[in-house]
């Protein structure tokens, strides 16, 4: 019984293409397949010249599979195909693609707020700093890029979906003199968002470049905790003027903070300083001071790596109540010592030309 064409096709479908990970038929590698009356099989395998070696074993496996059908002879010819040349670009004097970190039009400075661990108060620091800088008369933007737990809408008391009248640009929200945009405002509250690398990078770029930030002295970026795609993309694609690293004094938080600092050093993004949050607990009833998470660990770390300690923010009920209530302590209790701690950082940053 001579080999049928269908049987050959079925046999070839069992051979895997190592490049596309499908079978060699589906990958379109087999061309000009003929099965003569006496069962002799011939076909061409078309592969790119650079991969000819890789396909040697594939060709042998294909031959064996067809021979196993009882074909009296199998002839496989490997030919090299070359990718068609790209059509010429006829656009005269095409502008070169910008390389390296870019500035966001209208935005004078970008200041990132980072932390190694989650829950250390990075977003609380970002919202209070933003409001304190606005109170100093700076034009401030706040981008909540904490994709894993966007909290700025709640902290700044902003809700609703941002409008996009032209379908291309996004109108940011505004409260307490701060222009704000959050990835949390673009997703559905009840939908857990699974962000994959490229999606994250796209979303960040969109937030930076498609939001109508207007003219800003400083855009504060509240980063997700850790050392992931958002941090890398921000530093690589945009000109970040400085990073403030927030940590609690605990060893675990400090270890992670150190990793973050190493990453920014590698990315050549300047570290402006560290903030110790939840530094001491001040009882809201009696004013008694307790070092719940220890005290001074961040100061020691900052000294070790040679960056300034910008503030030690106490662990205080008012800070949490204010954050959860939609008006940061800088706004809700502007004369409190807690608000003062944030305002001092804001003034320092302005004095240093960093915000
Ligand atoms: N100094 C503080 N005193 C009291 N509560 C605080 C203080 N700092 C932060 N908190 C509270 O701790 C919780 C976590 O803070 P926050 O959301 O700012 O942390 P985060 O580092 O941004 O976390 P994540 O990155 O996981 O979103 C919030 O409920 C916040 O109100």
UniProtKB/TrEMBL annotation:
ATP binds at residues 116-123. GO terms for biological process: iron-sulfur cluster assembly. It holds the Pfam family ParA. Residues 83-105 are annotated as: Disordered. It comes from the Bacteria. Residues 5-71 form the MIP18 family-like domain. The keyword Oxidoreductase does not apply. SUPFAM superfamilies: Fe-S cluster assembly (FSCA) domain-like (SSF117916), P-loop containing nucleoside triphosphate hydrolases (SSF52540). The keyword Transmembrane helix does not apply. PROSITE patterns: MRP. Homodimer. Belongs to the Mrp/NBP35 ATP-binding proteins family. Binds and transfers iron-sulfur (Fe-S) clusters to target apoproteins. Can hydrolyze ATP. This is Iron-sulfur cluster carrier protein.
């Amino acid at each position: 019984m001579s080999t049928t064409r269908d049987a050959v096709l079925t046999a070839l479908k069992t051979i895997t293409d190592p490049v596309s990970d499908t079978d060699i038929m589906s990958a379109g590698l087999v061309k000009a397949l003929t099965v003569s009356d006496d069962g002799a099989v011939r076909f061409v395998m078309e592969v790119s010249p650079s991969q000819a070696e890789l396909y040697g074993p594939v060709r042998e496996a294909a031959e064996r599979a067809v021979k196993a059908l009882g074909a009296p002879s199998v002839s496989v010819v490997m030919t090299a195909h070359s990718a068609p040349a790209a059509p010429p670009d006829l656009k005269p004097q095409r502008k070169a693609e910008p390389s390296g970190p870019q500035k966001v039009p209208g935005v004078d400075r970008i200041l990132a707020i980072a932390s190694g661990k989650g829950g250390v108060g990075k977003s609380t620091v970002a919202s209070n700093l933003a409001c304190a800088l606005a109170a100093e008369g700076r034009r401030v933007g706040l981008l909540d890029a904490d994709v894993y737990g966007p909290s700025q809408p709640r902290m700044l008391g902003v809700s609703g979906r941002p409008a996009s009248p032209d379908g291309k640009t996004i109108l940011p929200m505004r409260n307490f003199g701060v222009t704000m945009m959050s990835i949390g405002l673009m997703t559905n509250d009840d939908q857990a968002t699974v962000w994959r690398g490229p999606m994250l990078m796209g979303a960040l770029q969109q937030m930076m470049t498609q939001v109508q930030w207007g003219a800003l002295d400083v855009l504060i970026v509240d980063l997700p905790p850790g050392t992931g795609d958002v941090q890398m993309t921000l530093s690589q694609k945009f000109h970040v003027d400085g990073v403030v690293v927030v940590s609690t004094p605990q060893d675990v938080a400090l270890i992670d903070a150190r990793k973050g600092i190493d990453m920014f050093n590698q990315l050549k993004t300047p570290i402006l300083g560290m903030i110790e949050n939840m530094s001491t607990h001040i009882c809201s009833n009696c004013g008694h001071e307790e070092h719940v998470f220890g005290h001074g660990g961040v100061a020691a770390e900052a000294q070790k790596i040679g960056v300034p300690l910008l503030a030690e923010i106490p662990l205080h009920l008012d800070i949490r109540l204010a954050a959860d209530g939609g008006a940061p302590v800088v706004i809700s209790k502007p004369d409190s010592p807690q608000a003062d701690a944030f305002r001092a950082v804001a003034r320092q940053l302005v004095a240093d030309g960093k915000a």
